[in-house]
Amino acid sequence: MDGGEREPMLALSSDCGKAFTHKAQLVVHQRLHTGEKPYECGQCGKSFTWNSSFTQHVKSHTLENSFECKECGKTFRYSSSLYKHSRFHTGEKPYRCIVCGKAFGNTSVLVTHQRIHTGEKPYGCIECGKAFIKKSHLLRHQIIHTGEKPYECSKCGKAFSQKSNLIVHQKIHM
User: Fold this and answer.
1) 127: which residues sit within 8 A by CB, 6+ positions away?
2) Residue 67 dihedral angles phi and psi, to the nearest 5°
3) What is the model's pTM?
4) Strand partners, 103
5) Where is the C2H2-type domain (predicted)?
6) Rounded to an integer, what distance in angstroms lies between the CA atom of residue 47 and that of residue 40?
7) What is the full per-residue pLDDT of the chain (174 aa) written as tens digits?
8) Phi first, then psi: what are they for 74, rounded to 5°?
9) ∠ CA(54), CA(58), CA(62), 5° rounding?
10) CB of 49 within 8 A of CB of 107?
11) CA 33 to chain centre
12) Measuring CA to CA, which residue among 130, 70, 71, 80 is closest to residue 106?
């Protein structure tokens, strides 16, 4: 190499071996493996892995949606979003787990599913350290620490921290 030229440094994904010329690219790529979704919509709470997806989503709250699902009437800002949504109605599941063969309609659900096989639990409770595969499971768990009981029986008024406990309880009224 001549004066001042440097060979690009490669950063490798420890999960899949994919190479990147910049460490920042690797950090963003790793979200595929971890399921991290750092971009959260302040209006509806939906989270996204990529800033570009988040930006498109935010626009959906303010811009008129122009692609309508013929099956259910739900509208989408982008034709690609309608296409992905259509899998819900057709049952198409093009993403398959290489470990067990289970199929999924989108990649984010597949990534979350694969944690069953890897044992990865990226969402940890800061109160007790218990870890979870999904962020929603962590949020449901954290109610234990707050003492909150948001699920109330309409028959007797008894409250529960978990919806599943309310459902079991309601059977006594039948």
Assistant:
1) 142, 145
2) -115, 115
3) 0.50
4) 96
5) 10-38, 39-66, 67-94, 95-122, 123-150, 151-174
6) 4
7) 455 555 556 777 777 777 777 787 778 778 777 878 888 888 778 888 878 888 877 776 766 657 888 988 888 878 888 888 999 899 999 999 999 999 999 888 999 999 999 999 999 999 899 999 998 899 888 888 888 888 888 989 998 888 889 899 999 988
8) -65, 140
9) 165
10) no
11) 12
12) 80
Q: How far apart are CA 143 and CA 92, in angstroms?
A: 36
Instruction: Please give the distance of CA 24 from its chain centroid, rounded to a whole number.
Output: 21
38: which 2 tokens?
């750092």
Residues in the chain: 174
Task: Report helix, strand or coil for 75.
Answer: strand
Q: Cα–Cα distance between 77 and 61 in angstroms, integer?
A: 10
What is the rounded distance in angstroms from the CA atom of residue 137 to the CA atom of residue 156? 27
Task: Note the pLDDT of residue 4.
Answer: 53
Partners of 163 in beta bridges: none
d(CA 128, CA 168): 26
Q: How far is CA 89 from CA 86, 95, 108, 110, 153, in A?
A: 5, 16, 18, 18, 33
Local structure of residue 173 (DSSP, 8 states): G
